[in-house]
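Subject: mismatched residue count in predicted assembly?

I count 721 residues in my input, but I want to confirm that the predicted structure covers every chain. Input:
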Amino acid sequence: MVKTLLNRFAVSLLLLAGVANAANPEPVRFALIDPLTGPMSVVGQPALEQLKFTADRLNEEGGINGHEIRIVGFDNKINPQESLVQLQKAIDDGIRFIIQGNGSSVGSALLSSINKHNQRNPEDRVVYFNYAAIEPSFTNERCSFWHFRFDANADMKMNMLTDWVAENDDFKKVFLINQDYSFGQAVSEAAMRMLKEKRPDIEIVGNVFHPLGKVKDFSPYISKIKSSDADVVITGNWGQDINLLIKSASEYGVDVPFLTYYGNTPGTITQVGEKGVDRIYLISEYHGDFTDPEIAERQEKMYKQTGWDLYPRVSVMLEMIKKAGDKAGSVEPVKLARALEGLQFKSMAGDVTMRASDHQIQMPTFISVLKNNMSHGAEGTDFNFHEVAAFNAEQATLPTSCRMRRPK
Amino acid sequence: MLETIVFSTLNGILYGLLLFMLSSGLTLIFSMMGVLNFAHASFYMLGAYFAYALGLHIGFWPALFLAPCLVAVIGAVVERYGLRRVHASGHVAELLFTFGLAYVIDELVHLFWGSIPVSYVPPDYMQNALFTLFGTDYSIYRGVTMMIAVFMFAALWFLLKKTRVGMMIRAALTHGDMVGHLGHNVPRLFMGVFGFGCALAGLAGVIGGPLLNTEPGMAQTLGPIVFVVVVVGGMGSLIGAFYASLLIGLLQTFFVAFDASIADLLGVIGISVDPYGEVTGITLASLAPMTPFILLVLILIFRPCGLMGELEP
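Triage response: the counts match. Full output below for your records.
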């Protein structure tokens, strides 16, 4: 009796599973290869949480063309070799969509490896979505059909930043401090080149590189900034390196403006607080004004749910991927990638386009500065970044030297 | 130029004192028990995390005193129930035990406090300027840190040289058996010294946490440097550790502070080379993180027993 009951139960379960399968096609999985532990995890964890947060919302809307979105985190400890191991793991797991952002050194390794994989396995392609590795070459001489960049590259950001600096006559002496690897050098090189062009009278009083993620005490660098008599500092630092740099600067009472690529890295605002007000500038795809009530609500919810602030760029990336998949009617990598080329999307900051010629996103960009008593504070404080300058997508764009080779 | 020198000196000394706090415990434990405690930097990390966790409830100052005590208790327990048992199996077993312990503590910290840095910051009023020199603020916190370190050094010296306990410890260093025969409880002394050494590491963590970021990797970043300090200073020599700490602290900060490359340095002594060459173009600043290890190699080549060491390493 019991046995027959059990049998029936088992059969009905099987049937149920079958029905569920028919309604829900295979989930589509995305591998996030980023630092999820260690000192640089402050930039990996929020991306992972944002992806999951956005995926939940998109799944309610039916996922990508009916496929449920699943995010799988792979910890690369910000090490390029480790990233390749994790990439192989993800590919062996059957994941065909790779997401990565932190560290152009990692991005570069992934890019070469994914290109190679796709060349060797024409029937089994992998696509790489990059939300923050912004060394310019990825969408110029090294551009690849398999790589899509959802952040303005270092040159684009520096172009806008130097436009803004050039208009400000108070800036006479610029100090550059960057991480000692391809990205930091690209930032420094672009800054010098563009400043020379736009404001030949500006003097570069310092151009310093420090090891990536290794410096715990920035005091010596701060005294260098101090003694250089600079009246503005430009830095591409991210992760712990921007955190500690800003913290040290405020501790030593350095009161010149810091123009940063990533001053909104989690932890920075908490540590610098009032001393960063009107001093820390950020160039980014969004700011902390949250004029759109829907986005503001999303920010509140995200912070309550995960303890991290909204990461707009990562959210937009996943939404665009969904739109491309829906448009292609498939989650097959090549079809989705083709649909993503030239795709237009209405993001919280305005219209963005994934330029087909080099897979570099074209989007509006803002310069903002840290303010107190904002209606939507970051990191649970009252501080956030308030818009000071806006650039539309046409102003943000730069030409590309990419000659894209597409699969047949 | 002057301000660079002044601030680099201040920073170098502060960093050096922090290193000394860490290495003094290590060298004390080594000279007494012959145990190279691989988990020493982990106790430093525990100190920082305890102070952070306690500070949330009881405030900064009470936590500053309580956290090292807590670390001392843990250290003592580890010695009593771990090391003492392993001791019978010889030094290799002890080494492996502390090595394993370091991993266990690392994982526990990950488990309890997560893998991202915690926001352990000194109270607001301590972030104000103690004095302003050449337009640069020197925060009260840094001043206090330096004071605590100097005070600790004085107290340690007093304890070892002027008290009865210190006498026993010094005697046990060289003639452990004899001290035992005279009726002193040597194992308990060992336990005390181990606990005390851990407390010093904990104290370094408490005051170093806000300066150098409190995160699960902090033990790994400082661990190797502490060993360098002990070896450079001479195994088991407190005063050697003191000199070595300051030397490394100053070297590292000054290397960063000066804009010079290897070519510039060679230029000073009259050898002119390509200033933008692969090797000769390397700046001193980018060599800074390497300096402790370069020093280690040089010391081992030219003075294998360390600056002040009497024991063979």
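Chain A has 13 helices and 15 strands. Marking this ticket as 'not a bug'.
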